[in-house]
Design goal:
Structural class: alpha/beta
Distance between the termini: 36 Å
Shape: globular
Largest sheet: 4 strands, parallel
Number of domains: 2
Radius of gyration: 20 Å
Number of helices: 11
Low-confidence stretches: 22-29
Oligomer: single chain
Order of helices and strands: HHHHHHHHEHEEHEHEE
Length: 233
């Protein structure tokens, strides 16, 4: 809501925090950029990032590509991270994690889950408020729901999620209600679930809550201070 300059002091007295138009515009532009970083990351950009690394990490990429992973898959891994607002500033660790899992998983979606586990401390630190990570947990009923509906290939790798649309809608409604309730209270939190369910929980929540962080238990290390804000049960 826009107010004239003459009302700024009155707004402060009432407990509001006035923001000047330039700051509001910069905040909006910053959010727009963050929401679209994945689309902006080109192959050329990725190559430029790799070329700036120390020689041993450039050799690591040469060892992986194309014998274990293609350049396009590596680019997809980085894009998937950016889509969920995970910084790729620690590209060295991302490449190390990718090299660990690439012999066993070729899909970018599977690779990125291992990468996220290795980036767990960074992810939690970026989400924490004053050193405290708020978590909204999935209850046992929904954890079991996702576990039972995973589709796996012959090697046991998860390749999809197959569930009754009615149950999916029920989950979306219950999760949406829990998330909105806490947002209205001004709480900062992530949704916490199992590693296998995480990408699918995120997928279902991404449209109504595009900036809502969804983490797996494996991303939350022992050194992270956790505060429970409830559960989706």
């Amino acid at each position: 809501m826009w107010i004239p300059d003459a009302m700024i002091e009155e707004a402060k007295r009432l407990g509001y925090m006035p923001i000047d138009p330039v700051s509001a515009l910069l905040t909006h532009l910053s959010e727009t950029l963050r929401n679209n970083l994945a689309q902006l990351l080109t192959y050329k950009d990725m190559r430029a990032l790799i070329d700036r690394l120390e020689p041993e990490y450039r050799r690591l990429v040469d060892d992986m590509v194309p014998s274990l992973i293609t350049h396009s898959t590596l680019q997809s891994v980085l894009k998937l991270l950016l889509t969920e607002r995970v910084s790729i500033r620690n590209l060295e660790l991302i490449l190390e994690a990718t090299s660990e899992i690439a012999p066993f998983a070729r899909r970018a979606e599977a690779i990125v889950e291992h990468v996220r586990m290795r980036l767990g401390s960074q992810i939690c630190s970026d989400l924490a408020v004053e050193g405290m990570l708020g978590v909204l947990r999935l209850g046992p009923r929904w954890d079991l729901f996702f576990h039972e509906r995973m589709k796996r290939d012959a090697k046991g790798e998860i390749i999809g999620f197959d569930a009754d649309p009615v149950q999916v809608e029920r989950f979306s409604q219950e999760a949406g209600s829990a998330i909105r309730e806490r947002m209205e209270r001004g709480e900062a939190f992530c949704v916490l679930t199992t590693p296998e369910a995480r990408p699918y929980v995120r997928l279902l929540l991404s449209r109504p809550f595009p900036s809502q962080a969804v983490l797996s238990h494996m991303e939350v290390g022992g050194g992270v201070q956790v505060k429970s804000v409830g559960s989706i049960s």
